[in-house]
Specification:
The structure is a homotetramer. Chain A is an alpha/beta fold. Chain A is built from 10 helices and 14 strands. In chain A, the strands form 3 sheets. Chain A has a 9-stranded mixed β-sheet. In chain A, about 60% of the residues are buried.
Chain lengths: ~350, ~350, ~350, ~350
C-alpha cells in the first residue's frame, strides 16, 4: 500500500474485509504500508494490521515477497509508481483518476498491459448502479434520449482547503474535473457507452487557484443520446451528491449517492394508471451483491463498493478473466477529461478520440 | 349558505367552480349567505357573489326560492339547522363532523331520509384517495393486514387558539376526535370497511380545555385487519398531515395530504429485483377526475376535492342515484367516535355498534 | 379572450377566480371569447360564462366595450393580435413565449409600450418561487455560484402529438426551447439576473420534426455565477418537472414543480451539527400569497399562480405601478432564446445582447 | 462467540472491525466460535478468522483463556449461557431481546451484576439516533407531547419462514414483540424515558403460529407524553422500517432506518417564514461517531452501529465506566414486553412496574 491518507484507509479496509464477504482464490496478506511520514505510517500500520512500514516506494514495488501494489497517493505520483510496479511484474491497483494527463495515463496503460490492473472507480460497484446497468442492458429503458449527471460537493467553499494537494495543479493535475467529474464520466461510459463529442466549460471561482473549481459539460453519445454533466466543489448544500438520471423511450432511472441503497426506476410500459417512479431498495438477495453482504433491507455504506471492487478483481485474476475498471478503461475516462480541457480552452465542441 | 368562516369560503368556492369543471344537470345560483355578523356577511357576499345576506337561518331554510341549504357553522349548531332544512324539504349539505353527539347525528339522518343529503368529508374525493380505493377494490393489495392513519396538526400548541369554538365542548362537542380523527375514520371506513371493536385513549395536554387535544386508537376491522389511528393538535412540525398506509398480502399503499397529488403503491407481486414503492402522480387522464380538472402533471390543491364532492352530488341528484358521503355514512363515523369516547372512559375495548 | 384551448381554459379560470381572492380596483367582466371553431367556443362560453363568442379576433380587439385582450393562441399568432390590440389602446395579456422570434417580440414590446401589458410566465408567482426570490434578495444565499434548471416533460415521446401545433415551426416558432426553456429562463432572470453569454445545443430526436425536441445550455450570468439548463420533451418519467437549484456561498435553494408548495432551503450559516436542507411548506400566513388563498398547510395547485398573476396585474394597473412579467421582460427571455438558436447553429459561445 | 447464524456474522464483523476505527484499551482476539453444526462452524471460522470451533458451549464459557462470551443464538438459549458465563466471571455480550421472559431476564441481570455486560440493541448507536438524543437532552424539542414508533418488516408474509425458530414460542418466546418491538421500546426508553402504563394488542394472522405476528401499543410515558407503537412482520412493502417520530412543544424529530444516515429535525422556534423540517445528514465531523468512521457525506451501513456498540463497550470497561445498553437496561425493555403480554391478555391498561 503506497499512501496512508483517507483513501489509503478506505483501501486498507477493503483488504481487511474482502475475505469476510467474498470466497477468494487467494489469501490477502497486508505486508507493508509506505509513505513519507513515519509516525503516520506507524499509526496506520498498527490500526489496520500492516506488517511493516517503509518510506521508500521504490524499495517496496520491487520486493519479491510482494505480489500487488496499491497506489493511494496524489494523482501526479500515480504514473511513476504504477509503471515501476508493472515493470516489476506486480499486480497494480491505482486510485482514480488514473493520471494527471492523458499522455501519462496512456503510458501507464501500456506499461500495465501484462499485469492484472485495477482503477478504483468504486461507484461502479454500488449495487444500485449495477442494477441500473442490468436494466439498461435488458432494454428496460428502450432507446436512450438523455443522460444527466451531477457531482456536487462543497469542499471548495471552505477556504482552509485551498492549500491541500487537491487544489494544486502540480499535485492533482485537475480540480473538480479529475476529482469529481471523472467518477461521473466513468459511470456514464459504463451505463451509456462512448461519448462522441462534447462542449465544456471549466471555471475557477477562487482567484489564485490554478485548477478548476467547477466544470460543465454538454455531450453527444455514440448511441444518439445527449448528456449534461456538472461537477463542482462549490455545490454548497451537498456534501457528496453523485447523481445520474437516464431517460429512455421506455423509462427512466435515477440514482443519487445521498441514498446509495436505492434506485428509482420509472417503467413507461406499465399501464397508465399505475405508472410511477419505483423506489427500489437494492438489497434483495437477487440484486447485485445481494448474497455477499448482509440481508434484504440492511443498508450498505460508503466502503462496500470498494470491498466489492477488490473481491471481483481477485476473483477475475483467479479465473483469468478480464476485469473492469482496468487501466484501459480509465484511459477512456482520461480521454474525455482531455477533451473537456481542450473544449474549455477553445470554447467550442471537440471530438473525443476513440481508442 | 349558513356560515361565513373559513369553511364557508371553501364551500362558496366549490359552488362557484363546480360548473366550470363538471357538466351539471342544474345551474347553481348563489342566493343567500347567512350568519351572525352583518359586516362579515357583506364582505363574503360581495367577494363570492351571494345575492343576499341574512342573519336568521330560520328564515332562510324555509324560503321557497331556495332548493339547498349548506351548513358551515360550529358542530353544535348542525343538527337544528339540518333538521329544519330537511323538514322544509331542502337538499341539505353539512360540514363534518355531522354532529357533536351520536344521538344528534342519528336524529339528523332520520330527518334527512327523504331529501338529498351530503356531508363534506372532502378527502374521500382526492384523486389519489379514490385511486387507492380502486386498487383495493381490484384486489391489488390482497388480504388487508394493517391500516394505519395519522392526522397531525399543530393548532393546539398555539395558545391563542384556546378560546376559539373548536376548543370548547359546548361548541364543538369533541376536540381532535371530531375535527381530525373523523376524517381518518371516514377514509378508513371507505377504504377498509367497518370497524368491529376498538380501544382508544383521549388526552388533553392543556389544563382547562374540556375537549381532547389528541386521541389514540387501536382497532379491529370486520375484514380481519387491525389498525392504528392517531389524531392530534399537538403534532408540532406538521401543519396538516392527514396520512394513511395499508399493508396487504399483495402490496402496500401510502398517502399523505402533504403531497396530495401522489399515491405510493408497492406491488408485492412484481419480480423481486424490480419491486419497489411506486410514486404515482395521480393526474393522468385515466385517473379519478383526470379529465375534470387540468392536465396530466398539473397539480390540484386543497379546494378541488370540495368541487368534486359537489359535482358528484349534483349529478347524483340529477340521476337519482345514491350519493356518498351522506348523513347515514356520517352516522357510521359518529358511531366510531362514540365508541372512542366510551373506550377512553372505560379504559378498555368496546364494540362499535353495527347499524 | 382570444383562444379556447387548454390555456384559454386556465386563463378563463383566472378571470373567474381573481375577484374571490384578491381585492381589486376593477370588476372583471368576461365579455367575449374568440376562436376558429364555433362549437368549441359555445361550449367554452357556456362553461366559463363568457357573454358572447366571436370567430374574428380583428373585430374583437377593436370593440369599444372591451378594455383588455388576452391572447391564448399558438405562438405565431401572438404578434399580430397583440399589436392590433395595443394599437387599439387595450390592456394586453399574452401567453408565453411572447413571440416566435426575437424580432417579433421586440415589435410587440414597442407596440405595447403605452398600454398595460402582461406575459403569462405564471411560475414566477408560485409562492415557493417568490420566497426563493426573497431569500436571495435578503442575501441568504450569499454570492451565487451555480444556477441549475431542468424542465422535463415527456410529451415528445408520444407519437400522436407530432402533428399538433407545438411541433410545427410555422405555428410554434420553436419547440422545447419556446415551450419549456422559456419558463426556466424567465425564472433564472428573475432569481439570478441577466445572462451574459451561453453555449447551447438544440436537438431533435424524431426525424421530420422541424423544431427542437430538447435543448441544453451552459451559461455565464452577469453576477459571476455559472448555470446549466436542460429542457426536453423526451424526459420520459417526468410529466411536468420544472425545477431549479441555486448554490451560493451561504446556502442552497431547490424547487421542483412536482411539489410546488415546498421549497428546500439549506442554510450553510447554521451550526454544523444541525445544518440540513429545510423543507419549507410555503403556505404560512407570512409567506407570499399566504393570506390570499387558503390556510397554512393547505396546498395550492396549478391554477393559483395564474390567479395571482392576474390579481397583481390588475392591482398594478389600479395603482399605476410597474408590473412584471411585462412584454419588455419577455423580450429579455426572447433574447436568450435567440442566443440559444445562434449558439446551437454556430456550435460556440455567443453573447446575449443587453437591452 | 456462541452462534454462527446471521447475527453471529454481524457480531464477528464487529469484533474484526472495532480495532480499525476505535482506539481500544484491549486487543481483540477471536478465539473460538461455538455452535451445533460443525460444518457451518468451520466455514464461519475460516471466513471470519476464529482460531477454533467447538460444539459444546459449556466447555467454552469456562475456558480460562477466554475473557468474553458473546451470545448469538435463539432467545430461549440466552439465559443458560449468559448465567453460566457470568458465573465463570466472563464479560458477557448478549443479542437482544435479552430473554424470552421477564423472569429469565431478571435472573440474567442478577447473575451478570458483577461482570461487564452488554445487550446488542445496536440501533441506539446509529449516529442519527444519538443526535436525536442529544437534541432532546439539550431541550430542542421542549416538552414532549407525542412519541410514535413503527417497526415494519414483511418476513411473516413469507410462508417459508413459518418453521424457523423465530416463529416458535418454544424457541423465541415472543414473535414480533421480541424481535421488532423490543428495538422500538429500547429506543423509546433511551429517547423519551420510562413508560408508566400501556394498552396493547398482540395479533397472529397465520393460524397455527403460537407467537404474535404483530403488536399494537398505546402508552403513557412518565414525562407526560403519550405514545403509539406498531411492530409487525406483515408490513408488506417495508423490508426493515424501524422509524420513530417525536413531537414536542418546540419541534419535531423523525428517523427511519430506511435512510439511516439522516435525521429530520423541525425547529418550531425558527421564524415562521423559514421554518421547515431539516434533513440532517448525520455524517459531519462533530456528529456522533463523526470522526470514527469515514468522512462527512460518506454513508454508514447496517454494520456500523454494531462496531460502535462494541467500541464503546470495550472503552467503558477500560475506563471502568458504566455502559448502556446493559442487562439491567434490557430488563427494563423486558418489563415493557411483559406488560404488553399482560395487557393483550386482559384487554385493558396495565402498569409497567418500575424497577
Amino acid at each position: 500500500m503506497i499512501g496512508s491518507g483517507f483513501i489509503g484507509r478506505v483501501h486498507s479496509n477493503a483488504f481487511r474485509q474482502v475475505g469476510h464477504f467474498f470466497e477468494l482464490p487467494y489469501q490477502v496478506c497486508c505486508k507493508v504500508i509506505c509513505g513519507r511520514d513515519r509516525a503516520k505510517l506507524e499509526t496506520a500500520a498498527s490500526r489496520w494490521g500492516w506488517d511493516e512500514i517503509d518510506t521508500d516506494w521504490q524499495n517496496v514495488v520491487t520486493r519479491r515477497d510482494i505480489d500487488a501494489v496499491d497506489i493511494a497517493v496524489p494523482n501526479v505520483l500515480h504514473s511513476a509508481i504504477a509503471i515501476a510496479a508493472a515493470q516489476a511484474g506486480k499486480i497494480v491497483l491505482c486510485e482514480k483518476p488514473l493520471a494527471s494527463t492523458l499522455a501519462e495515463a496512456e503510458k501507464m496503460a501500456k506499461a500495465a498491459r501484462n499485469v492484472p490492473n485495477l482503477v478504483w472507480f468504486n461507484y461502479r460497484r454500488i449495487p444500485a448502479v449495477v442494477l441500473a446497468k442490468q436494466l439498461i442492458t435488458e432494454g428496460r429503458l428502450g432507446q436512450t434520449y438523455h443522460y444527466r449527471a451531477l457531482y456536487l460537493n462543497q469542499s471548495g467553499n471552505d477556504p482552509r482547503k485551498s492549500n491541500t494537494w487537491r487544489y494544486q495543479r502540480s499535485e492533482a493535475g485537475m480540480g473538480a474535473a479529475g476529482d469529481l467529474l471523472s467518477h461521473s464520466i466513468d459511470s456514464a461510459l459504463y451505463l451509456n457507452g462512448p461519448i462522441r463529442e462534447l462542449s465544456a466549460m471549466m471555471h475557477t471561482f477562487v482567484p489564485g487557484r490554478d485548477v478548476d473549481d467547477a466544470v460543465l459539460l454538454m455531450a453527444r453519445f455514440a448511441n444518439g443520446s445527449i448528456g449534461t454533466f456538472e461537477a463542482t466543489r462549490f455545490g454548497v448544500g451537498c456534501q457528496n451528491r453523485n447523481a445520474f438520471e437516464v431517460n429512455g423511450s421506455k423509462g427512466m432511472l435515477a440514482f443519487t449517492l445521498d441514498n446509495m441503497n436505492e434506485l428509482d426506476f420509472f417503467d413507461a410500459t406499465e399501464p397508465l394508471d399505475s405508472r410511477g417512479s419505483r423506489r427500489l431498495s437494492v438489497t434483495a438477495l437477487n440484486h447485485p451483491y445481494g448474497e455477499v453482504f448482509w440481508k434484504p433491507g440492511h443498508a450498505l455504506g460508503y466502503e462496500h463498493p470498494f470491498i466489492a471492487t477488490l473481491g471481483d478483481f481477485l476473483n477475475s485474476i483467479g479465473r483469468q478473466e478480464p476485469f473492469h475498471v482496468n487501466f484501459e478503461d480509465a484511459v477512456a475516462v482520461q480521454r474525455v477529461l482531455d477533451a473537456v480541457e481542450r473544449s474549455s480552452a477553445s470554447r467550442g465542441w471537440v471530438t473525443v478520440d476513440a481508442t
